Amino acid sequence: MLKPLHDNVVLKLEKIEKKTPSGIILTGDVKEQPQFATVVAVGPGARVNNEVVLPSVKVNDKVVFKKYSTTEFKYNNEEYLLIAEKDILAIMEE
Prior knowledge:
Radius of gyration: 15 Å
Order of helices and strands: EEEEEEEEEE
Oligomer: single chain
CATH class: Mainly Beta
Structural class: mainly beta
CATH superfamily: GroES chaperonin
Distance between the termini: 28 Å
Strand content: over 45%
Number of strands: 10
CATH topology: 10 Kd Chaperonin, Protein Cpn10, Chain O
CATH architecture: Roll
Number of domains: 1
């Protein structure tokens, strides 16, 4: 089980498949694609003026985040990203 500290968030990168209108799958560098991910775990929050500020995101939220603000790591043969909550730009609502 992953348990981030402070205002850190663990993300699982979304696989984005590019297709042409005729169904041809395009390959390309993943760094050029928008950075979408699913929240896997959330820390308890940041301390500000000796009070805990609760996080704005929750597990299973789909989020957009800053491109170069994550730390990549593997846990139980799965790839994850660790990011500070302030570097998450938006929650995608359906």
